[in-house]
Amino acid sequence: MEAAYPSHDDILVLPHHEPAGAFGFLPCHSYLIKGREPILVDTGIITETESMVDAVRRQIDLEDLRWIFLTHEDLDHAGAVAPLMQAAPDARLVLSFLALSKGGAGEAGGLMDRLVIATPGQSLVAGDRRFGVIRPPVYDSSATVAFFDDETRTLFSADAFGGVVPRVATDIEELGTAYEEGCAMFTLANSVWIHDVDPARLARSIDVVRTLAPDTVLSAHAVPLRGRTAALCDQLQAMPAMPPAELPDNAAFQATVAQMKAAGGPPSEEPPA
């Protein structure tokens, strides 16, 4: 995990950039809301479980953590659920019914009375915050939900609006056009069904985000996206007309492996601490 930094006065980004080979890095961020009842949105990638627990502990006493919001069950989002729920005995776990069914809560035994089911179209109150629950317009798991914080007008958008980046960054302006390019590549690969759906139906799903008009979008896979909602929605709406993402086939993969071996092993791609 890298050094935490603020998105808002009481929302911290807990960042991690996972090396993605020739594509650069895939941000895998979690978010800590330091309100009256602290809330953690997503729990990081499973390979960084210990670092994730330590990152939260550096910000708050884990016994004070009251809520863990899980956007979906994938292990780049739910990696540290089990140890965090164990270390935070008063925390409640908020997730969709499908995420629970697919194993997002880890071992549910002993946790059933600490679970809250988040359903798109409904809302929930966590301490002094109210959150609307929606299904984001793109996703890679049918269990995905996104959370809209009324107080800060922030949308925690799960995979939506995320993307690979060529370098570690904490500000969108540092990336220039690389963000849009990486977002298109990631979205077309992560939500391959986008070419199979009726564009009008996709537009209606995107319009949910347009109507909410969040001031900030916090994707698990992007730096904070402030004041960009209309442009983000426009780009997403244009993606069905783009060609599918071109990913390495076996021949290209084997060639890359051979090049790495010839160079003496894989290059170090760890981001700065």
Distance between the termini: 7 Å
Largest sheet: 7 strands, mixed
| Share in helix | 25-40%
What proportion of the residues form beta strands (DSSP E)?
15-25%
How many domains make up the 3D coordinates? Answer: 1
CATH level-3 fold name:
Metallo-beta-lactamase, Chain A
Uncertain stretches of 5 or more adjacent residues? 266-273
Level-2 CATH architecture: 4-Layer Sandwich
What does this 3D model show about the protein?
The chain is an alpha/beta fold and 273 residues long. It has one domain: Metallo-beta-lactamase, Chain A (4-Layer Sandwich). It contains seven helices and 15 strands. The strands form three sheets. A seven-stranded mixed beta sheet has the order 1-2-5-6-7-8-9. Strand 3 and strand 4 form a beta hairpin. The chain is globular and about 50 Å long. The N and C termini lie close together (7 Å). The C terminus is likely disordered.
Short description:
With 273 residues, the chain is of the alpha/beta class. It has helices at residues 49-59, 81-87, 97-101, 178-190, 199-212, 229-238, 250-262, and strands at residues 5-8, 11-14, 17-19, 25-27, 30-33, 39-41, 67-69, 92-95, 115-117, 123-126, 129-134, 146-149, 154-156, 216-218, 225-226. It has 7 helices and 15 strands.
What's the arrangement of secondary structure elements?
Layout: E1 5-8, E2 11-14, E3 17-19, E4 25-27, E5 30-33, E6 39-41, H1 49-59, E7 67-69, H2 81-87, E8 92-95, H3 97-101, E9 115-117, E10 123-126, E11 129-134, E12 146-149, E13 154-156, H4 178-190, H5 199-212, E14 216-218, E15 225-226, H6 229-238, H7 250-262
Parallel strand pairs: 6-7, 7-8, 8-9, 13-14
Antiparallel strand pairs: 1-2, 2-5, 3-4, 5-6, 10-11, 11-12, 12-13, 14-15
